Amino acid sequence: ARATELEVQTAASANPLTGLPGNIAIQRWIQDALRNPPASIVYGDLDRFKEYNDTYGFTCGDEMIRLAARLLERFLLLPSANARLGHIGGDDFIVVCDGAVPEIVLEEVCSAFDEEKRHLFSPEHVRQDGYPSVTRQGQTMMVPLATLSLAVITTDNLGVDPHPGVFSQMAASLKKKVKAQNAERQRSGYLMERRQAGGDMLSLHLSL
Tens of pLDDT along 20-36? Predict the structure, then answer.
């Protein structure tokens, strides 16, 4: 009965755009991962998506979100029987995997997104690597093509039963860093957190 109840809750919280499980299932996956390491939790979202949505419209914006979902499913979900993909909402996704995620897979997701996103922009904007967008203040600025950010948290060295608040803070910090790196390089990328046991230093890896 409990399993059936969870299935009904998961279906009810599914995102209508992608059909992927929503926040109810995602929170349960993360809690399970923190209690049963080793696991990897991948936060994925789009950079400069708001400007894309404002310039190209919601229909194109929805297509970009579905593209990100398809690529995360293709590279992270389908190859592993122990991975789950959820859609938090908007352009935010989470993948929860048992064990480690091979870095080559993360690189493949980012490369595929940068290649396949091109058909969602006009040829002129692709040639320019950007497009004009009007800010809320009414000013026109050039905006780079949207990119995909992946922030990867591993549970290997987080300690026994890490507090969810600490984990969330770590994820927020890592997501901010990968977005800054992507903006500088103007292409999709990922960062992996590797916390050393007993230490506070984070070792960050940037995709090449």
Answer: 999 999 999 998 988 88
- How far is residue 145's CA from residue 191's CA, in Å, rounded to a whole number? 20
105: closest CA among 139, 64, 73, 140?
73
Q: How many CB atoms lie within 10 A of CB 104?
A: 9
The mean pLDDT of the chain is 86
**Distance of CA 166 to CAs 44, 81, 125, 150, 171, Å?**
19, 28, 41, 19, 9
Spacing of C-alpha 108 from chain mean position: 14
Please tell me the total number of residues recorded for the chain in this structure. Answer: 208
- Whether pTM > 0.85 for this model: the answer is yes
Q: How far is CA 203 from the centre of its chain?
A: 19
CA angle 123, 146, 51 (to 5 degrees): 95
For residues 99 and 7, give the distance between their C-alpha atoms in angstroms, rounded to a whole number.
24
Q: How many helices (H) and strands (E) does the chain have?
A: 7, 8
Q: Of 81, 51, 75, which is closest to residue 145 (Cα–Cα)?
A: 51
- At residue 31, the 3 state secondary structure works out as helix
Token pair recorded at residue 35: 């209690």
Q: How far apart are alpha carbons 72 and 89 in whole angstroms?
A: 15
